[in-house]
Amino acid sequence: xxxxxxxxxxxxAVTFFLMKKGKIKDANNNYIPDAIEKPIEVVxxxxxxxxxxxxxxxxxxxxxxxxxxxxxxxxTKK
Length: 78
Description:
mainly alpha
């Protein structure tokens, strides 16, 4: 586990160093490489579309399934 943490820290340090040197692009200087930002934006858009589609399907299913009213059991304990 310690090895994994050390590897991640070294990778982050190398990435930070390469961004400062200009080898890795970071147009808006938010310390997130542009190569990572662009795919994340694409995934966010796809998730938003999927979320809307799921919401529409749920509404259609709710309309299609007949509503059953279950009688609430009354408690006789006092």
